[in-house]
Specification:
By secondary structure, the chain is an alpha/beta fold. It contains 11 helices and 16 strands. The protein binds ligand LLP.
Length: 382
């Protein structure tokens, strides 16, 4: 909730900026901690969703691990207090430099996506005289029913190892001296709102578990990745963690001694962030009125890239309702946050909030048009 006290403070701050409500973040983290401890699951926060140092520090203080996709992310996570022994490294194209640095830092596990990648990890680990723990990221061929750009576990996906390759990969891995297979990893997509998708994943995981068990190959961890969606229409609503955790609990056969790992990103950080902007101009189009704001696709690319819907609010006007196309200043027609958005009569200088922008907002910002990066503002400081 953006209340009037905060709004008064917003008037003095240069826009656009990211506003993080840390009470919402802490409330979400309390719930995830409680639910994961009850179930005995280990949570690794997906750093790619938001790597703001202050946010990382708060998340690490809850004792969670980190899911990283580059050594830069690993390094930021360690600086923010995450323990290297609780960091996993994912990604379909890890560089030699990043793999070597991660090995030097003794991270917990590499989530591996192909045989050639495992070969390189084995070679680089042998140079450091180490054994790298690896999990196989397996493509389970499950349609996530989300935007196609963030669907990652279907036949044409570049991610993961095909099920028909597992036998060969496991055989080769057992002949290597410097890698040790410790588990299976999955991540089938992001912003998944249908619980039945996760149920299908559980069924697939159980089938694969049987495959490993029947060959007496022990696995310490099963990592189900991230993906739990949030309600962009209702920013005040928290993610459906309880439902998600009880579904995993009910449908995955976790074997004795095994630990279930999760990698939530958006569900942790999405609802606590808003992009705050000012209206520069109101301009008439032939069929619409444009509200041109000072935030653009460089600050939040999700609407332009995924046609994503973020709730847009005018925080300062209480006038009659009109419809506006809310657009940014960048030289691209895709720089549009929403079309025909109902807002109270809007004027130059009004403050606009684009809600549910905590995940993949600041993290995906660019400097196109040589625009400044939006600063971050935290509720605790206002
Ligand atoms: N684990 C892995 C291996 C991942 O690739 C991702 C996200 C996550 C965990 C976290 O997923 P989450 O819980 O946040 O859904 N930029 C897009 C989202 C890309 C997600 C990439 N991978 C967006 O703005 O919707």
């Amino acid at each position: 909730m953006i209340n009037n006290i905060k709004l008064d403070k917003f008037r003095d701050i240069e826009t656009p900026f990211y506003y993080y409500d840390l009470d919402i973040l802490r409330c979400t983290l309390d719930l995830v901690k409680k639910e994961s401890e009850l179930a005995g699951y280990k949570v690794h926060y997906a750093v790619k969703a938001n790597a703001n140092p202050r946010i990382l520090k708060i998340i690490s203080s809850y004792g969670f691990g980190a899911d990283c996709v580059s050594w830069n992310e690993i390094s930021c996570a360690i600086s923010a207090g995450f323990k290297p022994s609780e960091i996993v490294f994912a990604g379909v194209g890890k560089t030699d430099k990043d793999i070597s640095a991660a090995l030097r830092d003794n991270i917990f596990c590499f989530n591996c996506e192909s045989m050639p990648e495992i070969e390189v990890i084995d070679q680089l680990a042998s140079r450091q005289n180490k054994t790298a723990r690896i999990a196989l990221r397996i493509n389970p061929y499950i349609e996530a029913h989300t935007h196609k750009y963030i669907t990652t576990g279907i036949e044409e996906s570049k991610f993961g190892i095909n099920t028909w390759e597992i036998e060969e990969v496991v055989k080769r891995v057992s002949s290597f001296n410097n890698v040790k297979l410790i588990g299976m990893h999955f991540h089938i997509g992001s912003q998944i709102t249908l619980m039945s998708v996760f149920k299908s994943l559980c069924t697939r995981i159980n089938e694969l578990q049987e495959w490993f068990t029947s060959r007496s190959i022990p696995l310490e961890i099963i990592n189900v990745g991230g993906g739990l969606g949030i309600d962009y229409e209702n920013p005040e609503k928290g993610p459906r963690f309880q439902e998600y955790f009880s579904l995993l609990n009910e449908f995955i056969d976790v074997l004795p001694g095994q630990i279930l790992h999760l990698e939530p990103g958006r569900s942790i950080i999405g609802q606590c962030g808003s992009l705050i902007s000012r209206v520069l101009f109101i301009k008439n189009g032939s069929n619409t009125m444009f509200a041109i704001i000072d935030a653009g696709m460089t600050d939040l690319i999700r609407p332009a890239l995924y046609q994503a819907h973020h709730k847009i609010e005018n925080l300062t006007s209480k006038g009659n309702i009109y419809r506006y196309d809310v657009v940014g200043p960048v030289c691209e027609s895709a720089d549009t946050f929403g079309k025909f958005i109902e807002l109270p009569e809007t004027h130059r200088g009004d403050i606009i909030a684009i809600r549910s922008a905590g995940a993949y907002g600041e993290a995906m910002a660019s400097r196109y048009n040589m625009r400044d990066l939006a600063k971050s503002v935290f509720s605790d400081d206002l």
